[in-house]
Amino acid sequence: MKIKNEDVQRLAEIRRDFAEPPHLLRLESYATQRIEEVLQTLRSYTFAHKLATELEIFIPLIREDASNQRAIRQHMIDFSKALSVIWQYKDRY
Length: 93
Hints:
Layout: H1 5-19, H2 27-43, H3 49-55, H4 58-64, H5 69-83, H6 86-89
């Protein structure tokens, strides 16, 4: 099963936003909501369940550093890099 175009577009948008994290007051909330959205999307594809499980680690990392904007931004950048592997699967299934 191929990833739907709208899912690819949304994942790419989140990945791009995380590669250059915005300066927001509630960055922790913004980041965790987007990560949960990515995880939900990935779980809808059987071949991406393992990746979703691996990416879950970023939610507690971000929550632990809720008061440290610099650390949250770094976690977001790391998440963006980790998410990039989904493009290996994009056309394969």
